[in-house]
Amino acid sequence: MGRYQFAGRRRPTGPRQTHAIWRGIGCVLILIVPLVSWFLATGTVQLALHSGWPLPYQLLGYPVMPKQLWNLPGLPPLLFFIERQQHLYLALVLAVAYIVLISAVLSFGYSLVYRIVGPPKYGPLDLPQPQIKVGHYKR
C-alpha cells in the first residue's frame, strides 16, 4: 500500500457546467439589452430636441462616410441607410451609456439575489472561524 492510496479513488472533478436556463437567459439578455437601450436612446434624443436641452452640436446631424468606403462592392446600400439616420452619433453614445447603466443594474440585482438565496459562504469542509478576541495593543 502506497502513501498516496486514497488519491486514486477520488472522483475527478471537472469544471461545473452552467445550467441551461442561465445560458438561455444570458442569450436573451445579449439581444434584449442593446435593443432596449437603442429605443431608450432614440427616445431620449427626440425628447431632448423637443425640450431644447443643450446638446453637443458635433453629435447632431447626419453622419458622413469616407469616400473610400463607397468604392467597396456591396457596401453602398448600407452606407445610404446609415447616412439617412439623423443624429446617429448622439443616439449611439446614449445607447452605449444605457447599455452600461442597464448592465450595472442587472448585475447589482443579480448579486443581491445571489447573496440572499445563494449557497452559504463556508462549506462543510471549511474550518470554523477562529474565536479570538483581539485586544488593544499597548507598548
**What is the chain-wise order of helices and strands?**
HHH
Number of helices: 3
Approximate helicity band: 40-55%
Alpha-beta classification: mainly alpha
Task: Give the tally of β-strands.
Answer: 0
Quick one: biggest sheet? Answer: none
Mean pLDDT: 86
| Integer count of domains | 1
Global geometry: elongated
Strand content: under 5%
CA radius of gyration: 28 Å
Low-confidence stretches: none
**What's the quaternary structure here?**
single chain
The N- and C-terminal alpha carbons lie at a distance of 55 Å
Q: Could you walk me through the main structural features you see in this protein, from its secondary elements to its overall organization?
A:
- With 139 residues, the protein is mainly alpha-helical.
- It has one domain (20-117).
- Helices cover 50% and strands 0% of the residues.
- The chain has helices at residues 20-51, 76-83, 88-117.
- Helix 1 crosses helix 3 (88-117).
- The longest helix has 32 residues, at 20-51.
- The mean pLDDT is 86.
